[in-house]
């Protein structure tokens, strides 16, 4: 079967968002995930999508009565939108339907020319017999069949709907500030890995804010993430990456998010969210959300590099002024030496320039960097890389994602330079 849609969208379209604006702040309209009527609606919609082989048109027809069973149709359609995005539709990939239609029409025309004296009923019967059992319009969107559906429970659908209300607003966000209070180390590292997975542009600081009657709390972290409205190029993709990252935030015990988003007619409003909203993260199984290229890199590295191994716990590196660096990978050789790797993708130009300065000032730091070649389109970055002795000894270029061979060579080069 050939998939017609990726089925990976996790946001609602603008016409399905439910919110109100009060004093310049947008307030998403969340639903009660324990509401019996909504749970029943969710179950009815899920039952429809659990039927293998049904067409898009059949789903639309059967779902219509369920969508009309509550007064808030926008809410009902929002729930179904999330189910549509969990479904994959397709058709048989061994049939060229356009060619099949053309051949059938040509055969029918030839039959008509030879059908002197044949009744219409006889002509129709012969034409249909020549067509066979194949639905020649199966490749049209409404006729595509359900190939796979990622099932879930009714309450989980309502939880994802609430989360999607915020995710959809983040598609039009400017710079986003995330404050994490007293994070557990394991939870924090997991959040940082999601930040890396989605290739977001972020700076991480220890928050030195003084609380009332308390000294500076060094356990607070403040993460500033650039929004899609503040990056150049591929803003739509970056917005989806930011929206996909948000559920990872919801798994923390104490957090607060603040940003400015664009809503109706470009109106800019403030969005504030925290753990008190009770939003539930869908990211329960961490390994299930590891991008394919990262999983492949881990496997290939383990199978082909004998003198280095990937270390599970990547540490923070203090780069001064309360700013922290969280590498993408940490490696350990057979002698116990450790080297960290930080990757810079197409949106990370500003951070890359800062890291080149930091690396040159700290040559003994066990850090290597990889730079996506897409960044070379910026003259200031190309010039900075060409003029950096530190990058020459501790860096490499890659396309989209680094190869194991390039990483291994850079690790060996770093180790050789360290022993000089």
Key descriptive features of the protein:
20% strand, alpha+beta, Alpha-Beta Plaits, 420 residues, five-stranded mixed β-sheet, seven-stranded antiparallel β-sheet, 40% helix, 13 helices, Trna Endonuclease, Chain: A, domain 1
Query: Radius of gyration in whole Å, from Cα?
Result: 27 Å
Proportion in helices:
40-55%
CATH topology of the domain at 291-419: Trna Endonuclease, Chain: A, domain 1
Please name the CATH architecture of the domain at 291-419: 3-Layer(aba) Sandwich
Q: Class of the domain at 291-419, according to the CATH hierarchy?
A: Alpha Beta
Which shape, going by the Cα principal axes?
globular
State which percent range the strand residues make up.
Answer: 15-25%
- Low-pLDDT segments, ≥5 res: 1-8, 210-218
Major beta-sheet overview: 7 strands, antiparallel
pLDDT averaged over residues: 86
In total, the number of strands is 17
Helices and strands, in order, run as EEEHHHEHHEHEHEEHEEHEEEEEHEHHEH
| Intertermini distance | 57 Å
Structural class: alpha+beta
Q: Name the strands of the widest sheet in spatial order.
A: 10-9-6-8-7-13-12
């Amino acid at each position: 079967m050939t998939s017609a849609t990726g089925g990976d969208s996790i946001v609602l379209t603008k016409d399905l968002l439910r919110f109100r604006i009060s004093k310049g702040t947008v307030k998403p309209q969340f639903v009660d995930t324990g509401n019996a009527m909504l749970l029943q609606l969710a179950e009815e919609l899920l039952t429809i999508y659990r039927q293998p082989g049904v067409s898009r048109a059949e789903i639309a027809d059967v779902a219509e009565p369920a969508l009309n069973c509550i007064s808030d149709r926008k809410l009902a359609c929002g729930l179904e939108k999330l189910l549509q995005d969990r479904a994959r539709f397709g058709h048989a990939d061994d049939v060229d339907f356009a060619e099949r239609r053309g051949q059938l029409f040509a055969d029918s025309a030839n039959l008509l020319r030879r059908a002197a004296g044949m009744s219409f009923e006889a002509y129709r019967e012969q034409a249909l017999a020549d067509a066979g059992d194949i639905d020649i319009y199966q490749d049209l969107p409404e006729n595509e069949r359900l190939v796979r559906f990622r099932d879930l429970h009714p309450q989980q659908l309502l939880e994802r709907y609430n989360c999607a209300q915020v995710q959809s607003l983040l598609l039009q966000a400017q710079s986003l500030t995330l404050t994490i209070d007293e994070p557990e180390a394991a939870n924090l590292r997991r959040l940082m890995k999601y930040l890396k997975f989605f290739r977001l542009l972020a700076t991480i600081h220890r928050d030195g804010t003084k609380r009332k009657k308390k000294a500076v709390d060094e356990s607070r972290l403040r993460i500033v993430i650039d929004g899609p409205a503040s990056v150049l190029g591929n803003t739509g993709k970056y917005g989806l990456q930011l929206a996909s990252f948000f559920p990872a935030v919801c798994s923390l015990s104490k957090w607060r998010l603040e940003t400015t988003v664009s809503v109706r007619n470009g109106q800019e409003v403030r969005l504030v969210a925290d753990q008190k909203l009770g939003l539930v993260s869908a990211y329960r199984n961490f390994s299930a959300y590891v991008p394919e290229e990262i999983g492949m890199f881990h496997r290939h590295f383990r199978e082909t590099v004998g003198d280095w191994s990937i270390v599970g716990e990547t540490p923070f590196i203090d780069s001064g002024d309360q700013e922290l660096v969280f590498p993408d990978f940490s490696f350990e050789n057979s002698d116990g030496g450790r080297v960290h790797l930080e990757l810079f993708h197409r949106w990370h130009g500003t951070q890359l320039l800062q890291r080149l300065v930091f690396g040159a000032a700290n040559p003994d730091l066990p850090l290597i960097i990889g730079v996506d070649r897409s960044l070379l389109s910026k003259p200031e970055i190309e010039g900075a890389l060409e003029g950096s002795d530190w990058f020459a000894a501790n860096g490499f270029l890659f396309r989209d994602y680094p190869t194991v061979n390039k990483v291994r060579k850079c690790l060996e080069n770093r180790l050789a330079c360290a022993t000089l």
